[in-house]
């Protein structure tokens, strides 16, 4: 079947994704929807910045940026012109545990889009001029960030929290590591990570199962199985209770803090997620927003989120305040964590958090691209194709006992690793 002639069918909900397999063994989760004549793909390869060679942090991100800088017989300019001529959107990215990408195209240009994606994945040119251009852009960005308190606080936090571990290295690299990356390093990482045996794919749009199977076979079927990934050891946030200063001559300190967490695959993730919303995840309703900003005016923004990597999880927070009020802000944050440890949330507070989290969930599925990215992340985490349909019921079912258990696992005794970039006077 010609991909551009995919027949129109009834739209399908993200909760009814179906599995589509190819002759080469690649599987995708598929949501067919003819509402808009477009196709969106999201895909993820296991293995990201944690696989960077020793002393060459930033290699995975550099590779991701180079995949669409020319492929096959197309130079970088020619490749980009082909994309632009058909309004095809193709991009790649790298995180700690994966290299991924996305593709969006009109149905009538699907065949060409798939061909360009296949070229980028199987035959990236990695031309010397493209490597040097991306290297120069990356180094310029790193230099620009050298005096950014937020960047410096975050980098130092991860360096201290995961000292000696791949997660402690900056994914974007350093001036020294980016300068040291060679074309051979990029080729080796490509061979190690980009393979059909370690890929998760999601497809959303006006394409039926047969046409999708053919498209996937063309885009991913020629890939090798991929190499062997280095094991990334399990780890946790180190030095809880320690406070670190990154000295910067600025009137306001940027603060990053963290403690233990629960990974997405863990049965206690959903209770921890609800607990985090109550503490600092709710934009205007969280305890930290109310106590730190609204009642005391200590900061303009404050919040927390859950970080879930393959081999580590944590509860991570941020704020910024005047140098002379850093100690006060941290004391308020610590007090609210302590109150949740000892007393937990009120029943009304818990119910409001659950109502918000269930009611707002659908907002993450309002475009084909968003649906594809949500589904591929769920596949990557191994949560099951029915997760979207189950998720709200799991949130609604969280009890006070669940919250107490999650608090014991994440907050423990309330100690945090704290990094402040600035010149705090009462730290």
TrEMBL record:
One of its GO terms (molecular function) is metal ion binding. InterPro entries: Metalloenz_LuxS/M16, MPP/UQCRC_Complex, Pept_M16_N, Peptidase_M16_C. It comes from the Bacteria. Residues 33-172 form the Peptidase M16 N-terminal domain. Residues 181-356 form the Peptidase M16 C-terminal domain. This is Peptidase M16. The lineage of its organism: Bacteria, Pseudomonadati, Pseudomonadota, Alphaproteobacteria, Hyphomicrobiales.
């Amino acid at each position: 079947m010609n991909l551009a002639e995919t027949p129109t069918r009834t739209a399908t909900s993200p909760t009814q994704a179906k599995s589509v397999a190819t002759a080469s063994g690649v599987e995708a989760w598929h949501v067919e929807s003819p509402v808009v004549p477009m196709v969106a793909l999201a895909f993820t390869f296991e293995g990201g910045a944690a696989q960077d060679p020793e002393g060459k942090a930033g290699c995975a991100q550099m590779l991701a940026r180079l995949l669409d800088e020319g492929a096959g017989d197309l130079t970088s300019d020619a490749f980009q012109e082909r994309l632009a001529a058909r309004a095809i959107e193709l991009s790649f990215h790298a995180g700690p545990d994966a290299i991924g990408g996305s593709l969006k195209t009109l149905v009538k240009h699907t065949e060409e889009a798939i061909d360009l994606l296949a070229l980028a994945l199987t035959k990236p040119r990695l031309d010397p001029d493209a490597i040097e251009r991306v290297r120069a852009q990356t180094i310029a960005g790193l230099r620009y960030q050298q005096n950014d308190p937020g960047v410096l606080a975050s980098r130092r936090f991860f360096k201290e929290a995961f000292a000696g571990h791949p997660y402690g290295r900056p994914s974007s690299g350093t001036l020294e590591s980016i300068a040291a990356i060679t074309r051979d390093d990029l080729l080796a990482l490509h061979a190690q990570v980009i393979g059909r045996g370690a890929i998760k794919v999601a497809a959303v749009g006006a394409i039926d199962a047969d046409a999708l199977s053919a498209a996937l076979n063309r885009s991913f079927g020629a890939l090798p199985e991929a190499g062997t990934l280095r094991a990334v050891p399990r780890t946790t946030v180190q030095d809880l209770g320690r406070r670190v200063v990154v000295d910067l001559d600025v009137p306001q300190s940027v603060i990053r803090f963290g403690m233990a967490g629960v990974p997405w695959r863990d049965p206690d993730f959903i209770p921890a997620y609800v607990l985090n919303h109550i503490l600092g995840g709710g934009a205007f309703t969280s305890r930290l927003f109310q106590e730190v900003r609204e009642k005391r005016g200590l900061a303009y923004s404050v919040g927390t989120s859950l970080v879930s990597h393959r081999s580590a999880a944590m509860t991570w927070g941020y704020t910024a305040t005047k140098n002379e009020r850093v100690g006060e802000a941290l004391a308020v944050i610590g007090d609210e964590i302590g109150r949740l440890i000892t007393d937990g949330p009120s029943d009304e507070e818990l119910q409001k958090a659950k109502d918000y989290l269930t009611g707002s969930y659908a907002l993450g599925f309002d475009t084909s691209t968003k649906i594809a990215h949500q589904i591929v992340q769920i596949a990557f985490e191994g949560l099951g194709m029915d997760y979207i349909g189950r998720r709200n019921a799991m949130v609604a079912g969280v009890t006070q006992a669940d919250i107490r258990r999650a608090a014991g696992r994440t907050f423990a005794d309330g100690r945090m690793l704290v990094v402040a970039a600035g010149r705090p006077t009462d730290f």
